Amino acid sequence: MTFDEYQMKAEETDQVPGSGDEQKIVPLLGLAGEAGQLLSEYKKFLRDGDAHRLFKERVAEELGDLLWYISTVATKFDLHLEDVAVGNIKKTHARWGHGRSATLELFQFLDDAYPLAERLPRYFEVQISETIENGSVKMRAFTDGKQVGDALTDNAYSSDGYRFHDIFHFGFAAGLGWSPVTRKTLGRKRKSNPKADEVEDGGRATAIEEGLSAIIFDYAKQHEFLEGITTLDYDLLKLIKSNTRSLEVGCRSECDWERTIINMYEVWREVTRSKGGMVIVDLDNRRLSYKAGG
Cα-atom radius of gyration of the chain, to the nearest Å? Predict the structure, then answer.
């Protein structure tokens, strides 16, 4: 039996047909009630152990009742249960499924179709150094002995390490194959395609990347800069996906973003502790790494 078939059968037994407010509240209350019943059965199992011999049958019954109410709620809100199920599987796989263990061979670069000079370098090294100029602590980044980007300060009343946030852009490049900021600083904008240059590599995409860097930094700051953390809040990942869905990086999953953010903060913490060092940007292996001194 498919979900659609089940939904039609369930609708035939609805004792409060219709989709008005009064008709909707009944199955919604039913969901809450059956969830309580399921918890009650588990409470009895914890109390009685094997003496609760009908435990599995009761769990199956309560799950069936929950399914009926879920189906009925979907019907009253003009939703197809099949679509709900498919959407949920897509969401959970993007968050917890294939995206977490995807092989490198499955990773498609976003700029493979462009001339070599317009692609993000698949491997490069960035020397990070910290200097004090006129009483202000600044970060400078160099590739092949040449400075890339501007000298950065924390732009804050207190020192919090945000001056090293270029690492985030390099992290996006490594883990996602995406970073309009890195493209600009390395001179890799895709000028052969005016539309891509305008939309994907232009000012708006750059502003989105900078905004996400600041939002993620604020989140990380509230969580010990992700020290010892392996899982990010889903609300943060949803916010990121919402703000990037119209860009090419919209194809990256929540798992991709989570892995990238955790990796780049590993490197950021090393750089801030050492006040500099070498950052290795490896797109082929989708990772940033740190080498002291450089």
Answer: 26
Structural domain boundaries in the chain:
3-96, 106-291
The tens digit of pLDDT for each residue in 204-228 reads 999 999 999 999 999 999 999 999 9
- Distance CA(260)–CA(282), nearest Å, equals 12
CA atoms within 13 Å, Cβ hemisphere of 181: 21
Confirm if 110 and 177 have CB atoms less than 8 A apart. Answer: yes
**Entry pTM:** 0.81
> Got the DSSP string for 148-161?
-S--B---SSS--S
102 falls in which pLDDT band (50, 70, 90)?
A: very low
24 and 88 Cβ atoms separated by less than 8 Å = no
Q: What's domain 3-96's superfamily in CATH? A: MazG-like (1.10.287.1080)
C-alpha span between 196 and 206 (Å, rounded): 13
Helix (H, G, I), strand (E, B) or coil at 141: strand
- Per residue in 150-201, pLDDT tens? 888 888 888 889 999 999 999 999 999 999 999 999 999 999 999 999 999 9
Phi, psi for residue 275 in degrees, rounded to 5? 55, 40
- Please tell me the distance from the alpha carbon of residue 290 to that of residue 118, in angstroms, as a whole number: 26
Kindly list the distances between the CA atom of residue 164 and the CA atoms of 72, 139, 151, in Å, as whole numbers in the listed order: 53, 6, 10
Length of the chain, in residues? 294
Closest listed residue to residue 168, CA positions, set 220, 213, 222, 228: 213
